[in-house]
Amino acid sequence: MSTRGNWSGTYGFIIAAIGSAVGLGNIWRFPYLAGMNGGGAFVLLYLVMVVFVGVSLLVAEQALGRYAATSPYGAFRSIHSKFGFVGTIAILANFLILSFYSMIGGWVIYYLFGSIIAPHTLTAEGFQTFSASTVLPLLSQFVFIVLTSFFVWRGISKGIEWGNRIMMPLLFLMLGLIVIRSLTLPGAMEGVRFFFKADFSKINGPTVISALGQVFFSMSVGFGIMLTYASYLGKDTPLSRSSWLIAMSNSLVAVLAGLAILPAVFSFKMEPEQGPGLLFVVIPEIFRQMSGGYFFGILFFLLVFFASLTSSISILEVPVSYLVDERKLSRKKSVIVASLIISILGVFCTLSMGSTLGWFKIYGMGIFDLLDFVSNNMLLPVGGLMLCILIGYVWKPEKVLKEITQDGKHPFFGKKFWPFLIRYLVPLAIIVILISSSGLPEIARSFFE
Fold first, then answer.
1. Which residues contact 314 (CB under 8 A, 6 or more apart)?
2. What pLDDT, on the 0 to 100 scale, is given for residue 344?
């Protein structure tokens, strides 16, 4: 057995990969994006993007990871020495993402305890006061990073896989209970109709960009996580089947999260277009008004905590794998080094939400917004684009297909179309994201006005 560690089997890998994909991107981001982009039209567009973009990238990342059996940096170099920088981009992206993701994870911990001890304090004013303060947000963030580090410290099968085997079934169970409660509220069907009714007039450029961005954000593609997880795989795992299972599970949770949140929002006559405040402002208010809301409030924030923790574990594993494989540090030392760097960056993110560093702006963005923009709008798409170039034009699809199918041993549904997707359609979609997120369309529009 490899000293790097291995999954106990295919199920262990799949449940951990699902845990990585199912995070705040599904529970928190997807419902509010659906609310802001017209509901059902966005849902349909997102599911189409999952099939054509998400699954294509999932298979590609897993194939490269299993083939190379090393960190993103080493994996890209194993195909071509000049592509090592792409692995560096992936590692940097994970450092940046976990620095602000841990801040939000800390907020979730605070809200979980608040929903148990003092749910009446979880108001819009309470959230504003808490997020702008110093001690409690930093303490909550520190607890979240320690919990994340604990599972990665314990290794692949005894830590990451073990944690996901416990948390993911509980997450699905809790989410199901909350969906049932939400759907039984008076007027809930209005929210269901809003969520599923496809108004194609709502599909425009920004909606397409939002759906594409959500695929990257929620499916853990483009920044080396699935590559890293697949590097601990044996050759007997069917990559096509695992990719479809991960994609379907991820989409199922996103849809269930919408059914858990939006019917309740409509039932209590609140606006679905609330942005990030939907999770920390609107939802607590709904639970305060709901019959049995105390119990369901605890259940909801426990499920959000599990979702955020399983994702943060996978994010931390990427830089840890680099330190283990390339710098030859022990796993425990690697976890300490990576966690310290993330903690330092995370402190700046947290302090930027209040008066301490709230004044610091670059192009009008605070530290939190800046790291979010650089990682999600720039590094992730660039990483995904370079992955497509490496797979489609350097390693070549026919060789990758041999790795995916193990020379025909495992089936690959859609293998006839996959080379076209990974060479042309997916890169085009990523380029659209990059151009849109760069602000160039607005600059060009202002130039001609």
1. 16, 17, 19, 20, 160, 220, 225, 228, 229
2. 96
Q: How far apart are CA 334 and CA 353, in angstroms?
A: 29
The answer on pLDDT for 38 being more than 80 is no
| Number of structural domains the chain divides into | 1
Residue 151, domain member (yes or no): yes
Residue 118 C-beta-side C-alpha neighbours within 13 Å: 6
Expressed as residue numbers, the domain containing 244 is 10-448
CB environment 134-170: b (16+ within 10 A), e (fewer): eeebbebbbbbbebbbebbbbbbbebbbbbbbebbee
Q: What is the pLDDT of residues 226-242, one digit of tens each?
A: 999 999 998 899 999 99
* Residue closest to 216 by CA, chosen among 382, 85, 400: 382
Which CATH number belongs to the domain containing residue 286 in this structure? 1.10.4160
214 within some domain: yes
Q: What are phi and psi of 362, to 5 degrees?
A: -130, 115
For residue 197, what pLDDT is reported? Answer: 84
Using CA atoms in the order 405, 231, 104, 188, what is the torsion angle rounded to 10 degrees? 20
- What pLDDT score was predicted for residue 84? 94
pLDDT for the residue numbered 445: 53
**How would residue 444 be classed by pLDDT, with cut points 50, 70 and 90?**
very low
Interatomic CA distance for residues 334 and 321, integer angstroms:
8
Question: What is the rounded average pLDDT of the residues 40-53?
Answer: 90
Q: What is the pTM of this model?
A: 0.94
Q: Give the CA dihedral 347, 350, 352, 354, nearest 10 degrees.
A: -130
What average pLDDT score do residues 286-300 get?
95
pLDDT at 25: 80
Residue 2 lies in a domain: no
8-state DSSP, 183:
H
pLDDT exceeds cutoff 90 at 114: yes
Residue 186 DSSP label: T
Report whether 62 contacts 230 (CB < 8 A).
Answer: yes
- Please, what is the Cα angle at 382 between 335 and 369, to 5 degrees? 70
Judged against a pLDDT cut of 70, whether residue 273 lies above it is answered with: no
Residue 439 within a domain: yes
Alpha helices in 118-204 (DSSP H): 124-132, 135-153, 162-183, 188-196
Closest CA to 423 of 383, 380, 382, 394: 394
